[in-house]
Write a structure and sequence with these properties.
With 234 residues, the chain is of the alpha+beta class. The protein contains eight helices and nine strands. The protein has helices at 15-25, 45-51, 55-58, 72-81, 127-149, 169-174, 178-181, 192-206; strands at 30-34, 40-43, 88-95, 101-113, 116-125, 155-157, 163-166, 213-220, 226-233. A hairpin with a 5-residue loop joins strand 8 and strand 9 (226-233). It is elongated and about 85 Å long.
């Protein structure tokens, strides 16, 4: 039978014919690289779109070429510690053709490809998620810095009434340190005669009957006695 003769219906298609469309159409960037040289043997369309190289250019690169200089040692350590047949999951920073750095989560699998001992790496781009988390942390740090400078006491409790946050003004007003107060119940520092009024106000808030409350009460001082304070609750 000549090489261009049609294949009988009962003859299985070569694996490449069966699986390449799935590899190409996957929305997740995927790369196959030679385990010895780290040269890319194949990449799918999602990888080309995200990283910006043409297929021809991508296949001239190695795994080292898409890592920024600061990540080279991280890559070498990962390669040294990895066993040949292991399924690996790790985080890394990749670099695109334009120089953009991507935060990625990688899962790689061993396989034979084009006669080579190879690995396939699936890339989960978490750059936007990481950027959003970093922005949130930065915003929280800014507001925390503002609150720490305020003369009023700001505090937060969990749903059981235990302090989870206090600014430094608490130390100036009560004499108790923030560290020794965190985790204790807010009623511990309230004069017994004022606790019922405070608990009634808190109950209305937790039940949704009110969105805020303002109440005057006495707080104990660490050095003795108590001090009248007005609390705004939300």
């Amino acid at each position: 039978m000549s090489s261009d003769s049609p294949r009988p219906h009962d003859e299985p298609a070569p694996a490449d014919d069966q699986y390449r469309p799935l590899f190409e159409l996957s929305p997740q960037p995927a790369m196959i690289y030679d385990r010895e040289s780290l040269r890319f043997l194949d990449v799918n369309q999602a990888a080309l779109d995200r990283y910006g190289w043409s297929r021809e250019a991508f296949l001239t690169l190695t795994l080292r070429d898409i890592r920024p200089p600061a990540q080279q040692q991280h890559l070498e350590s990962a390669l040294t510690s990895a066993t040949a047949d292991a399924i690996l999951s790790t985080q890394a920073i990749h670099r695109t053709r334009s120089g953009e750095e991507l935060r990625v989560e990688l899962t790689s699998y061993p396989l034979r490809f084009a006669g080579c001992a190879a690995r396939m790496a699936l890339v989960n781009d978490v750059t936007e998620r990481y950027s959003a988390r970093s922005a949130l942390v930065h915003s929280e740090e800014q507001y925390r810095s503002v609150i720490e400078q305020m003369q009023d006491v700001f505090y937060r409790t969990d749903d059981q009434g235990h302090f989870t946050f206090l600014n430094r003004a608490w130390e100036l007003i009560s004499g108790y340190t923030v560290q020794e107060t965190l985790g204790s119940h807010y009623l511990t520092y309230v004069h017994p005669s004022d606790r019922t009024r405070l608990m009634d106000a808190v109950r209305l808030l937790t039940e949704g009957a009110q969105r805020s409350a303002r109440i005057e009460m006495r707080y104990f001082q660490k050095g003795g006695g108590y001090r009248w304070m007005e609390a705004s609750l939300r």
